[in-house]
């Protein structure tokens, strides 16, 4: 099976699939594009105009959650529960992780302080729900137990970006179980290795280019 992952270098949704591929030891090729100036062929393979896109022997899959479930069903040990209720619950938490990524980016790219604060409050509310869940069922050490799950792969890029910010968007003291889980994920070798080369420089550079309120306050030269 020939796999080609179409990627924007800093996209956390792409990184979800990179983690899954690396964890399962599946070989794949990567084609990088610029989302603000995509090649002409990109519109044909990405109906929503987003990455990741996975080509499987030339056939196209889009949306990170769909791609990850395909990879999970096709290669190696399963990363979602075999129990139908638990699997549905895990999918729901993956959706919350997606909402968290969007809230984070809204907070760090908003032009006005008020809009940034609103997105920060949205992120705090989402993570408050996550804290309540994890406090009852603490990661051991991963979301579903001893092995990496698709919930872990979905949240890990969000944690890496939150931890990379010079000024925290969250009161980590209010969500200690979430923080410990995030730190454990950030230390996992396959997750560290999934970051694009030069991430520590590229991520703040991207935020400065966006020139939102957060970057003006905390990323000034």
From TrEMBL:
A molecular function (GO) term: transferase activity
Keywords: Transferase
Entry-linked Pfam families: GST_C_2, GST_N_2
Cellular component GO terms held in the UniProt record: cytoplasm
Domain spans labelled GST C-terminal: 83-215
Highest taxon listed in the record's lineage: Bacteria
InterPro entries found in the cross-reference section: Glutathione-S-Trfase_C-like, Glutathione-S-Trfase_C_sf, Glutathione_S-Trfase, Glutathione_S-Trfase_N, GST_Omega/HSP26, Thioredoxin-like_sf
Gene3D superfamilies in UniProt: 1.20.1050.10, Glutaredoxin (3.40.30.10)
GST N-terminal domain mapped to chain residues: 1-79
Name recorded for this polypeptide: Glutathione S-transferase family protein
Gene source species: Guyparkeria halophila
């Amino acid at each position: 099976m020939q796999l080609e992952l179409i990627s924007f270098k800093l996209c956390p949704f792409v990184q979800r699939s990179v983690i899954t591929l690396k964890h399962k030891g599946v070989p794949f090729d990567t084609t990088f594009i610029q989302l603000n100036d995509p090649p002409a062929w990109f519109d044909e393979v990405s109906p929503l105009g987003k990455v990741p896109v996975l080509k499987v022997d030339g056939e196209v899959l889009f949306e990170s959650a769909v791609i990850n479930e395909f990879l999970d069903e096709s290669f190696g040990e399963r990363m979602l529960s075999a129990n139908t209720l638990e699997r549905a619950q895990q999918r729901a938490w993956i959706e919350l992780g997606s909402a968290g990524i969007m809230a984070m980016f809204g907070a760090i790219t908003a032009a006005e302080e008020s809009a940034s604060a609103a997105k920060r409050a949205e992120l705090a509310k989402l993570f408050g729900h996550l804290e309540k869940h994890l406090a009852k069922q603490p990661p051991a050490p991963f979301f579903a137990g001893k092995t990496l799950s698709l919930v872990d792969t979905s949240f890990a890029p969000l944690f890496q970006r939150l931890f990379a910010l010079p000024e925290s968007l969250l009161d980590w003291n209010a969500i200690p179980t979430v923080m410990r889980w995030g730190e454990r994920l950030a230390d996992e070798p396959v997750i560290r290795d999934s970051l694009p080369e030069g991430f520590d420089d590229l991520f703040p550079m991207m935020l400065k280019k966006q020139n939102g309120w957060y970057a003006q306050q905390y990323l000034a030269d």
